[in-house]
Amino acid sequence: MLVLLLALWSTCVLASVGDRLPQYKECTSQCIETLCYSNLPYLPQYDINIVSRYLFLWSCPLDCDYKCRSHVANIREAQLLPIVQFHGKWPFDRWLGITEVFSVLFSIGNLCANLINLVKFSKLIRGLGHGKNSQARGVMLFQYWLLLAVSVVGWLLSTIFHTRDIPLTETLDYLGAGAIIMANFNAISIRYFELFRAENQRKRQLYQSGLLFILLCHYLKLARKWDYQYNMKYNVVIGLSALAMWVAHSLRVYRRYDSQVFNSIQLSPYESKIQQKLGPFCKVRSRLIPLIPVVLNVYLTTSVSLELFDFAPIAHLIDSHALWHLCTIFPPLIWYDWNLWDLELSLIDKMA
Predict the structure, then answer these.
(1) What pLDDT digit, counting tens, does each position of 60-118 carry?
(2) At 5, is the secondary structure helix, strand, or coil?
(3) Which distant-in-sequence residues (6+ apart) come within 8 Å of 271 by Cβ?
(4) Which residue from 15, 51, 71, 91 lies 20 to 30 Å from 97 (Cα-Cα)?
(5) How much is the average pLDDT of 237-248?
(6) 264 and 348 Cβ atoms separated by less than 8 Å
(7) How far is CA 220 from the centre of its chain?
(8) Span of the secretion signal (predicted)?
C-alpha cells in the first residue's frame, strides 16, 4: 500500500542533537563503566530487569544507552525544554523490554487485519470449482492471497522491529515493506491489464518472472551495499505506480458499468458486505462502490501527515509513527471485500 512506502521517506540519521548533549555523554560513560566493566555492585538506576536482559537480549552497553536517553529526556521535560532525538530516534519508555509498545500493538493490529483476509481468501481458493471463469477467478484470487501473505510477514517483521530496534530487525522491516509494495504492484497490474484471464496466461508468467527478477536484483544491490536513498526512491516509484493504477482502475470501473449491472443479484452479497462494514461510518450507494479505492487512498494519503509532522512521543509511549500504524489497520478490512466485488463484476461483464 501507499502508506508503507511513505515510511521509507525517513532516511538514516547518524547523529542527533541528543547524542551531543553533555548529560547524555556523562550518563552513558558512567553507566557503562559502573555496570559493564567493573565488579562493583549494581547501582539501582543502572540495573537491568530479567526480561530485558534475557528475553530481548539487551546487552549492557545498549541498556545503558537506553537508560540514559530516558534519563536525559526526563530531565529536559522537567526543565520545560524540548525533547530531542538520539541516534535519529525519539526516546521511549520501555515496557518489559519492548522498545515501542504502541507501535508493536498497532503493527499486530495490521497483521491481524491482513491475516483475517488471508484465511478468507484461502477458503475461497480451496472452494473453487472448474471452468473458465473459475480458473480466471482462481488466478486473481491468488494474486490477492499472495499480497496478503506477504503483508502478514511484513507486519510481523514490523512488530519484531518495534519490539527490539537493532540493525538486523530494521533491515528486515525495510525488506518486508519493500516486498509488500511489490506484491501490491503485482496484484493491481495483473487486475488492471486483465492478465488473470486464461488467454493471457503466457503474458502473466513472463510479466511476473520479470517482477520477481527486479525484486531480487533490488535485494542483491542492497545486500552488496545498503543505501537508504536508493531503497527509498525504488519503493516510491513502485508504490506510486501501483497507486496510479488503483485510482485509474477504480475510475474505469465507475465509468464502465451501468445501473443494471450494479443491481445484479450476483453482486448483492458483495455489496451488502461492504455496506455493512461501512455502515457505522457512512451510507454508501451501490453506484459509488467503485470509488472506494479512491477514497481509501485519499484517507491513507491524509494519514501520512502524521509521519510528516513528526512529534515527540506522548507520555513517552505514542508517537506519530505509532498513530500512523493505527490508521492503516482499517483499510484492508474494506479493501479486500471491494476486490472480491470487483472481480465478480469483471466476470459478469465478460459473460455479458
Answers:
(1) 888 889 889 999 999 999 999 998 999 888 899 888 888 899 999 999 999 999 999 99
(2) helix
(3) 262, 286, 289, 341
(4) 15
(5) 95
(6) yes
(7) 22
(8) 1-15
Q: How many CB atoms lie within 10 A of CB 297?
A: 20
The Cβ of residue 70 has, within 10 Å, a number of other Cβ atoms equal to 17
Dihedral (CA of 204, 208, 209, 210) sign: positive
Phi-psi region of 301 (alpha: psi -120 to 50; beta: other; left: phi over 0): alpha
- Residue whose C-alpha cell is 488471508: 118
Per-residue pLDDT of 166-188, as tens digits, reads 889 999 999 999 999 999 999 99
**Paired residues of 98 in beta bridges:** 95
Q: Name the one residue in this structure whose C-alpha cell is 443491481.
A: 263
Q: How many residues does this entry show for the chain?
A: 352
Long-range pairs of 299-302 with CB within 8 A, sequence gap ≥ 24: 299/327, 299/331, 300/1, 300/2, 300/3, 300/327, 300/328, 300/331, 301/2
From the list 179, 184, 190, 104, the residue with the least C-alpha distance to 139 is: 190
Model pTM score: 0.88
Domain boundaries, the chain: 17-79, 101-350
Cα gap 107→59, rounded to integer Å: 25
Query: Beta partners for 314?
Result: 318
CA–CA separation, 220 and 80 (whole Å)? 47
- Strand boundaries in 132-262, DSSP class E: none
For the record, the C-alpha cell of 48 comes out as 537491568
Kindly provide the b/e burial profile for residues 2-29, where b requires at least 16 CB atoms within 10 angstroms of the residue's own CB: bbbbbbbeeeeeeeeebbebeebeebbe
Instruction: Give the C-alpha separation, 318 to 306, whole Å.
Output: 12
Q: State the Cα–Cα distance between residues 338 and 290, nearest whole angstrom.
A: 8
